[in-house]
Amino acid sequence: MDIDESPGSISIFHIYWYIPPPDLPFSSHDYSSSDFWTRFPNYSTDPDNLRQMILEQAQYAPTYHVELSGTHKETERRHKKDSAETITDFHIRLNLTHLLTTGIRTGGKLEILPDNQKGYRGGIIKSFEPSLSNSDIESGSTGDELQAWCHKFVSDPSKMKCFIFERKIINHDKSHLEYLLRRIVTSTNYRGQAHVNFPTSHKRVIVYSPHIINEWRMTPWIRWFFYLTFLWVFSWPILLLITRRYEVVKAIYEYADRPAGTGVSARKATVQSEDEFVHHWEAALRSAILGRMIKKDSCLDEDYRVQVLQEEVARGQAAAHVLQGTTGNAFADGAIGVMTAATTLVGEFNEARGWGYDT
């Protein structure tokens, strides 16, 4: 069955692909998977190895989602006291990662910290120094700025040091997308609290030198011990003071060629504009909301979206047959007409009344 996808149609290639950045050796990550740490010795001893790792990681966009959820409160009186419980009515996730690049492993644009901007250049505070000289750049095996900074990091004699690679998303109009999503929720006559969030993982890769203290700071149970005992209040300032930071390179991933509301000519999205994206998923989102779907750990997929569209087409065809009385049986046509009218009245009553109230 053919389903009209326009406007806002995109190729199946852009719909289905999602590849997270590859795992690194000797690595772990924080609770939200925002920061990934590695203490692989080669990254601290071989500038070519470090540079190649950064270039490879830059080919993968940060994992980017939008979450749409709705909650309401139910209050019960127990033992002469009111007890309120928050009920989740729906929780839906959509993957936005494929909208940040034109294809698999096409990557973002690398940016090196410019000389006229303060940053962590191997110290414990942001500064303009040291900057790269022509001799620094020419001494590297590839003759580029990234190679020069990798060489500076490896040559730094400090035992406690780290090199940070950041992924950054720009030009995504989150406020407009949130408005469009809330409008879909409102169209279902939902009366609870709607929430829109944009969780992002794989934001940073942090290379730590292979020191025992860096091994401890990456060990989950040790980190939790410091959190729970509040020893982090004392340990974090010490770690900040003894760790040399190199935060000089980032990869930029553009949702569009410029921010919303700027420029005279039309803004061009990398893959889909915010309006096109919502049009693409609108029927599936409305169906998931009304179906009280809760998917906190997985995303709505293309199969579900197509299934919803096919069901809508089938319902439209069935309704057309009923209106035309094409069953060939007068009694059956009359019965179906009565049932359809009753179903419509019930639906209109429920829609007018709304759902998801606080009680």
UniProtKB/TrEMBL annotation:
Record's keyword terms, sorted: Membrane, Transmembrane, Transmembrane helix
TM stretches of this protein: 221-242
Keyword flag Membrane: yes
Name listed for the protein in its UniProt record: Uncharacterized protein
Organism expressing this protein natively: Monilinia fructigena
